Amino acid sequence: MVEYGPYEFAEPEIVTLTEFLRDCARHERIVHYDDAYNAVRQFGGYHGPHDQRLWYLLGLVSESEVAAGRHTLSAIVVVKSGEGANRPGTGFFELEKTLGRYQSDDDTTWLSEIDGLFRYWRQH
Predict the structure, then answer these.
(1) What would the mean pLDDT of 94-99 be, rounded to a whole number?
(2) What does the CA dihedral 76, 33, 103, 118 come to, rounded to 10 degrees?
(3) Domain boundaries, position 36
(4) Do the Cβ atoms of 96 and 102 come closer than 8 Å?
């Protein structure tokens, strides 16, 4: 088990979300929180795409990627509808600030991560 924030995550849970997001990045695909939820809901403990547990798992995966010298995979996970649609949630930008990756504004930060992700995973 891996502790991150107030939660513990099993290795298969982490690997499943990581591989799902890497595959999406390889295909230059933006996904919704619903898609991320559907990738891990089999592990239980999730109450839908708006569950904080999912958000923390996205943070864990992204921090692991950055520690390995890559970009934050959670950049490709966006809000489906309503306010903030088609953009990452506020937690993404908070994580970017925590990791020292935040640039001049939200758009520049997000687009930089997307560009780096797609370039890297296109070749891996």
Answers:
(1) 96
(2) 0
(3) 2-122
(4) yes
The pair of three-digit structure tokens given for residue 65, joined into one six-digit string: 């990627």
Q: For the chain, how far is it from start to end, CA to CA, in angstroms? A: 27
Q: What is the pLDDT of residue 84?
A: 83
Count the domains in the chain.
1
**Side chain identity, residue 92:** F
Residue 115 CA to residue 65 CA, distance in Å, equals: 15
The model carries a pTM of 0.95
Per-residue model confidence as pLDDT tens digits over 38-56? 999 999 889 999 999 999 9
* Chain centroid, CA 110 distance in Å: 12
How far is residue 99's CA from residue 21's CA, in Å, rounded to a whole number? 19
Which stretch of DSSP H or E encloses residue 31?
strand 31-32
Task: Tokens for 123, please give them.
Answer: 């070749």
Task: Give the closest residue to 73 by CA, choosing from 10, 16, 3.
Answer: 16
